Structures are given as structure tokens and as C-alpha cells.
Amino acid sequence: MSFLPAALGALVDELNTSETIINMSVALYMLSMSIFPISWSAFSEEFGRRSMYLVSFTLFIVFIVFSILCAVSTNAPMPITFRLLAGGASGSVQVIGAGTIADIWESNKRGRAMSLFYLGPMLGPLLGPVLGGVLTQHLGIFFLLPVTLARENEPTATRELTRLSTRESIRAKSSEFTKSLKHYLIEPLSVLMLLRLPPVFLTVLIAAIASCSVYILNIAIESGFADSPYNFNQTTVGLAYMSTGLGYILSSMVGGRWMDSIMSKEARKAERYDSHGKLISLPEDHMKENAWVANSLYPLSLLWFGWTMYYGVQFMVPISALFVFGFSSMLHFNLGTTMLTEFVRKRSSAGVAVNNFVRNILSCVGTIVAAPWMKGVGGGYMMTTLYVSVMWTLTLC
Question: Where's the Major facilitator superfamily (MFS) profile domain (predicted)?
Fold first, then answer.
């Protein structure tokens, strides 16, 4: 999906459609990634993380196939359909990976590990638009992982051999199919009940609005820099995304260590030690000055970008805002994901799945409305609305 933002304008021209329709390929990709991880999370807790990783690696090949099919699309519905399918094939690793981090890392080191884990997904926004812009303009390993959540051995129920009539056999098979359907399609949705917990709900809501802001900003970068007074070509638009990506990387390198040091400092200040002398951490120990920095800078950077682009200020000024946004929003995402794994320690992947479900739905909506919204009111007023939404949700905490 990281290739698409820099290529949206070219896709509109080549497929003879509107920008909103092409943005649907990104939006439905996000929608697919919001729904499928719920099942991946449930399956990983039932069958173990390793089994789901092996399935994920197989689906990665499917993801590549659907991405190739997008490249040979001849009309607008084709990339939309293939991106929808690609989202389902690629939505497992983030959920299961975050659960694995929570399984094997202690609380006082989890922030650092989570930052490094999210560095991988964030390399896409750094490299994808650059490569996508270049390609658009000029060309129109398996590895073994330990089992981190093994299944307990369950006693095998013995069944007496009985002779069933044909009708009873059909009824038995039908009942078994119904139970399987309920178990694999309906029961995974029970993780959404975690939203009844106020700490989980507030964390997910704030993270969802931040994620929605990312995708609205991605559309605004392409739309704003491709139009007057900047008139960037696809390659230059792709390079503009590097500023956000560099902010992501810097935040991944320092944000996790910062979070862990804050948590240890708060536990020592409260003199919380167990019988072995180890620090006892609480979820709220993660959120101190780092939360203030993240939740202050990222909404302010939206205003900075929106209004400087609205008035056509020299291009380095809005690009600098993108770097600040990348740094602060990554702090925000890392903090939110780590907090969720603390709130639901025994079901960490379920907490992350709920987070992905809500935030990707909002991201889907944001991607659809971003282009007409920006054309209707301008980037400055659009980003101001986002700023007000962010600050309102923060007051709920």
C-alpha cells in the first residue's frame, strides 16, 4: 500500500476515473486489514503463534500475487478488488507479532522491543512512496520461531461406536458444521467486548483517530504537492514522504528506550519491588512526559502542515511538519500498543486486534473522504478539524 500514495494521480489518469474511486483501493485495503486480524488473533490463541506464522508466510505469497494483479489492472474495480484481498492476506503479522512481543518481553523492556517491531512496518512509508513515484514516472525466507503460546493437552473424549441412520448422520454432520462455523467466524468477534473496558476503549479511540490522521495526511501530501504552487512530479512527491518516514525511524530508535526508562523511574519512585527485588510496573508507568510530547506535537504538526500548504509556503516548511508528525505519531502508536498489551496481558494479541479493527475502519473512512474534503474546504481547515477532534478525545482522558 505504501507505493500507492505517490501514484494516485497517475492511476486516475490511466484508468480514467476519479481520485475518490482510486482512493477506495487504499480504503478497502484498510477495511480488510481491520476485519481479518480479529480471526488471526483468535486462531493464534487457539493453535499457537507458530502455526499462524507459517500460515502468514504462505499468505505473503498470496499477497504478492494480488499486488502483481493490481499492477496489470485495466479498470478501476480491479485494483480495488485486489487490494481488498491483499489486505486480508497481509493482516496477520502485525497482530500476532505484537502478541509475540508481549509474550517474550518483560514489561520494563517491552517498549524498546515494540519500537523495533514497528520499525519494520514503518519502513514502508519511508521507501514505498519514493519507489512508487519513481516507478510510476519512469515505468508507467522462511525462518523458524519458537512456540510462544503452546496449546495445553486436553483429554480425548472416548466415543462409543453406534450405528446411525442416514437421517441422524446428516443431522450430526450439519450440527458439527454449524458449531465449526460459529467457532471460527462468530466467536472471534467476542474480542470486541474488550471495548467495554474504559482504559481499552480510550486507548483504542485515541489511536484510531491518530491512524486516521496518518491516512488523511498521506492523501493531502499527494494532492497538495502535485497541485499549484508546488507542481511536484511523482518522483518528487514520493521524496516528500521520506520526511514522515525518517520521523518514524528516529522515534522507533529512541521512543521505546525512553518509555522503558520512564517506567523504571516511576516504579523506583513508588518503591514497588517484588520478593526478588525486581521492579513491579503498572500500565500507567509508561505514560508520563513521553505521552505529553506525543499528544502535543502530532496534532500541532497537522496544523503546521495544513496551513503552510494552504498558503503555499516554501516547500521545506510543510515537509518539516511531516518529520515532526512522523516522530510524534510513532511515539503515540508505540505507547498505545504497549499499553494495550499491559491492559490485557493474557490476551495481548486480542487487544491489538481490537485496536487494528477500530483504527483501520476509521482509516478507511478517512481515506475515502480526504480528497473531496480537501478540495472542498482546503488543507488548512481540514487539518484544523482533525486537530480539534484529536484534542477533544484527549480531554476524555
Answer: 1-397
